[in-house]
Design a protein that fits this description.
Length: 463
């Protein structure tokens, strides 16, 4: 265990435990290991090509770094037990242990400030790719089920009240599009991570060495070096953008979970949860609880708070690097791990659900959800909409006392409300017909839903 930090001028500085506790980031930033190694290799290659390091020295360093890359967990264990304050210092110390004086040259024209910003951008971009792959899987699962249920009628709600009849497919397609928006936003955030390379910024003001930052940007897949060195080490907007995307994703996951919680209740009875994806009660033997969607709804709070943690940590930081920035990592890791857990749970939870389509159909007959359609019937016969609205409103108010549905009302009753009603009104107000007639772009008619699902899957394929 090393007690002397890399930055100590001599070995008589012993860091007290309480300082280590507040200062050391190795316990959580060790995950930057592969990204820092990759960036270090690019850095040394550049130093050699700019004649700042000799071929011999750079070969030694790069070969050793490459060996370290190959060692995987073995290296990770060494790094974790190194006692260094962060992963960057631990890698440098390990390099020096292996090759001595040449290893001490790796930090030429580099600073931990540009190192950490670079490794973190690479890591965040990589982690985004893993999240967006999972989002795409969920979109696929939602779309596949939606496709099968474009004609399965169910109540649509506003204010959680029966409003107009839609299809289960329509409902799910809306969520599929919300997750597609997340997918696109994540792809954009991934690009933002790779926009500017911090490496070569050094502490914050550049260097007198004639470095080639463009070469490193190209090698590491960045669009360009940061326009100012200070921007390179001070900027964490790529992280805020990413946390924003994760928060909106968590919000969508929470909202759809809320639907499943409601739908699994006796009052709705729209879904049956698979035994493996629901839980029991320790006292009530009959219970089947929706713990998974409840936990997803609950865990969304962790993601939102990670986002605000970073905002708050950054809000009063003067340029350039300040140690507060070290706080960005744990917040992000928690948001990333939480969204990963949420997605990994919701996909099988959703895929193993069964839908109680009979109950949905029964509920679709309640609540006069075809009242707008009855009004539209009159409008199509020339009655101004507001007048038609009033006629049907009064009619519904009268018949709701006896509980008769509009589709069960006799023609003579209809005629009393308006002589323009004819016998075709009975077919006209049937729920499935009402749903199928809403074929405006983005409407709930099955043809429309299928077309929008095709658009979505095509777009996802070409992303
Ligand atoms: N562990 C630090 C971080 O995560 C690395 C940068 C340290 N730089 C410094 N000037 N102390 O931000």
């Amino acid at each position: 265990m090393n007690n002397t930090p890399l930055w100590a001028k001599n070995s008589d500085v012993v860091i007290p435990d309480e300082v280590k506790a507040v200062n050391n980031s190795l316990p959580f930033d060790y995950v930057l290991l592969p990204y820092d190694l990759k960036a270090s290799i690019a850095h040394v290659r550049m130093l050699e090509s700019c004649n700042i390091l000799t071929r011999e020295t750079s070969d030694r360093i790069i070969n050793t770094l490459n060996d370290m890359v190959k060692e995987g967990d073995e290296l990770l264990n060494k790094i974790l037990s190194s006692g260094e304050e962060d992963v960057h210092s631990a890698i440098e110390a390990e390099l020096i242990k292996r090759i001595g004086e040449d290893g001490k040259k790796v930090h030429t024209a580099r600073s931990r400030n540009d190192q950490v910003a670079t490794a973190f951008r690479l890591l965040v971009a990589d982690y985004i790719a893993s999240i967006s792959d999972k989002v795409a899987l969920f979109i696929k699962a939602l779309s596949d089920t939606a496709y099968k249920h474009t004609e399965t009628v169910m109540p649509g709600y506003t204010h959680l009240q029966h409003a107009q009849c839609v299809s289960l497919g329509y409902y799910l397609t809306t969520y599929a599009y919300m997750f597609y928006a997340d997918y696109k936003a994540l792809k954009k955030a991934e690009k933002s991570c790779m926009e500017y390379l911090p490496l070569g910024s050094l502490a914050f003001a550049g260097t007198s060495f004639k470095t080639d930052r463009n070469m490193m940007a190209k090698e590491l897949g960045f669009n360009a070096p940061s326009p100012t060195a200070s921007y390179g080490v001070s900027d964490r907007d790529f992280l805020l953008e990413t946390l924003h995307c994760l928060s909106v994703l968590a919000l969508h996951l929470s909202r759809i979970s809320e639907e499943f919680i409601l739908w699994s209740s006796n009052e709705f009875g729209f879904i049956n949860m698979d035994k493996r994806y629901s839980t029991g009660s320790s006292i009530m033997p009959q219970k089947k609880n929706p713990d998974i969607p409840e936990l997803i709804r609950g865990k969304s709070a962790r993601v939102f708070s990670a986002y605000s943690r970073v905002w708050i940590a950054l809000k009063a930081l003067p340029l350039s690097y300040n140690k507060d920035m070290q706080e960005d990592k744990e917040a992000f890791f928690d948001a990333f791990e939480t969204t990963t857990i949420m997605l990994d749970a919701i996909i099988p939870f959703f895929s193993t659900l069964t839908f109680n389509t009979k109950r949905m159909e029964e509920e679709s007959k309640k609540g006069y959800m075809n009242a707008t359609d009855a009004a539209d019937y009159l409008v199509k016969k020339g009655v101004p909409f507001r007048t038609a609205y009033r006629i049907v409103g009064t009619l519904v108010e009268n018949i709701s006392k006896s509980g008769v549905a509009l589709e069960d009302l006799s023609l003579s009753e209809y005629k009393k409300a308006s002589p323009l009603f004819d016998e075709d009104i009975v077919e006209f107000v049937k729920e499935i017909n009402c749903m199928e007639r809403r074929s405006s772009y983005g409407g709930c008619a099955s043809s429309e839903v299928k077309a929008r699902l095709d658009d979505l899957l095509n777009a996802l394929r070409t992303e």
